[in-house]
């Protein structure tokens, strides 16, 4: 099992297009290299390889789990996802629809509303205030070029953290990590994230909603 993370996350989204990082992460296993989405997933499923990507405000994270005998193929598929994701039209339409649906549902969910309100109030005007998933306004404007530009800026060797656990030794791990990550650029091209002071003055925000249960978030 491998866990890895690139420093960047949704804080690297273009200011006018929140959701680019999450959209890109959602597309990484939807076809890469010579493999379209169906062929890529078929390769994963045939070898029982579990591959996942997710985004936080500070990181793009990934995980891969595999049987030892399938490690060569697993790390090669990871290499393809990180270096030559296709961002084809059909998966773009499908994933965009899923993300829009998530955002639409969250707009009426008390916990999601509390979460967004907290971050907007704690970090006003800062990239941390942006919703990692994006907005109903931004998601339709995100194009394949935005996703490619994001991955090319953020996926690099100098901002990468890796942990590997399982039935494998250090020599084997080194070779496999070179396969998966060795062709990435040496240095990321991250936009500096401004320093920000967490809101110092105690503040309470109350949003009345016509729901039977109260949601509370504090920090």
Which helices and strands occur, and which strands form pairs?
Blueprint: E1 2-7, H1 20-27, H2 37-46, E2 50-55, E3 59-65, H3 71-84, H4 89-106, H5 110-122, H6 144-154, E4 160-164, H7 170-181
Antiparallel strand pairs: 1-3, 1-4, 2-3
Report on the architecture of this protein:
The protein is of the alpha+beta class and 219 residues long. It is built from 7 helices and 4 strands. The protein has a 4-stranded antiparallel sheet with strand order 2-3-1-4. The two termini are 33 Å apart. The model has no long low-confidence stretch (mean pLDDT 95).
Could you give a quick summary of the protein structure above?
By secondary structure, the protein is an alpha+beta fold.
The counted number of beta strands is: 4
The total count of helices amounts to: 7
Structural class: alpha+beta
Shape: globular
Distance between the termini: 33 Å
Question: Helical amount among residues, as a percent range?
Answer: 25-40%
Quote the beta fraction. 5-15%
Strand order of the largest sheet: 2-3-1-4
Properties at a glance:
alpha+beta, single chain, 39% helix, 219 residues, four-stranded antiparallel β-sheet
